[in-house]
Prior knowledge:
By secondary structure, this protein is α+β, with helices and mostly antiparallel strands. The chain has a domain at 11-81. 12% of the residues lie in helices and 24% in strands. It is built from two helices and four strands. The chain has helices at residues 65-70, 100-106, and strands spanning 15-20, 45-53, 56-64, 78-79. Strands 3-2-1-4 form a four-stranded mixed beta sheet. A hairpin with a 2-residue loop joins β2 (45-53) and β3. The protein is globular and about 45 Å long. It starts with 14 loop residues before the first strand and ends with a helix.
Amino acid sequence: MGSTTTSSKIATRSRAVLRDVEPGSTVDCIECGERVKFQAKIRHKQVICNVYEDGRWMRVEHYHSGCYDTAGSPHGPVDTTPVVKARRSAPARDNAGTGPAATARSA
Length: 107
């Protein structure tokens, strides 16, 4: 019987995603050359592109969201799927009365 291997394919084509501009951002827009700035009262969006050439990752490009459209969407349509933030897990509750919390209470 022959063995089979499963190889995971990594995306090797350029893609663009829409993200919030984060505090401390120090990048310039590829299209207009202006700084992509964070402002607390206005939640600006930016398009971040992972750029691949000949199947190899080359660089990251940042655009103001409007500038990406003006540039003709050079890296394809923008993925607007929201980022899933990591959830903090709460400490496990000791409902049975037999875990470390119960031991500490009975001591």
